[in-house]
Amino acid sequence: MGEQKMSSFTWQITGRTPDGFSSGNGPPDKWRDQLATRLGHRPRRIGILAELALFGALDCLDAAKETALPGDVVLRVCSLRGSVSALSQVLEQNREGLPMPFSFLQSQTSQILPALAAALNWQGDAVVVLARNPMDLAMLACHQAGGAGMLLGWVEEAQPCQSYWLRLAPCIVPTAGFVSASRFEEMISPNTRCWRLGQAGIEIAPACD
């Protein structure tokens, strides 16, 4: 690499879910059938939110041309509302007695993590975060990421459902081109290719070389 060096605080977006992230721009109509085909079986007992997370994460890794996730990748998932349908089901069952065990498990957003770990054949540092500002997840992940970078997802099951993912890997430090990101939409824009931590927050750039 000559005089250039690798920085664990600068990352290049190497993959993202193809459909992008915006209101009304979610997975295709038959995404659950596509997921079942990809996995070789239809997921059972994990809930819609976890299925959406699986669909988006696998799409993102396909775009990044990765068949396996390195063990030291930081995996972070963000949701504003969590498992809405499962929570509603648990509340309804609670009126009639105790909720059913699988309904209760599906209401726990943490169930996303074992589903992802099993599908990716991966073990590592993974967390689900409930946050109102999607930039909070990115900031948290940037502070915690290690040498293999990050796999980040923003997942919502409420209509229109969303499962947007980014794969970021450490890259060569560029000499210029970074500006402070003031909005989440700027960070995930197709024109943004690199992130780094700045003194005022996350900075973005259109290229890393």
Report what the structure shows:
This protein is α+β, with helices and mostly antiparallel strands and 209 residues long. 33% of the residues lie in helices and 25% in strands. The protein has seven helices and eight strands. The protein has an eight-stranded mixed sheet with strand order 3-2-4-5-1-7-8-6, sandwiched between helices. A hairpin with a 2-residue loop joins strand 7 and strand 8. Helix 1 packs across helix 2 (47-63) and helix 2 runs parallel beside helix 5 (112-120). It is globular. The model is unreliable at 1-8 (pLDDT under 50).
The gyration radius over C-alpha positions equals 18 Å
Outline the biggest β-sheet: 8 strands, mixed
What are the segments in which pLDDT stays under 50 over at least 5 consecutive residues?
A: 1-8
Task: Indicate the structural class.
Answer: alpha+beta
Short description:
This protein has 209 residues and is of the alpha+beta class. Helix content is 33%, strand content 25%. Helix 1 packs across helix 2.
Walk me through the topology.
Blueprint: E1 6-16, H1 31-39, H2 47-63, E2 74-79, H3 84-96, H4 101-106, H5 112-120, E3 125-130, H6 134-144, E4 150-156, E5 162-172, E6 179-180, H7 184-188, E7 194-198, E8 201-205
Parallel strand pairs: 2-3, 2-4
Antiparallel strand pairs: 1-5, 1-7, 4-5, 6-8, 7-8
Helix pairs in contact: 1-2, 2-5
Features:
alpha+beta; 8 strands; 25% strand
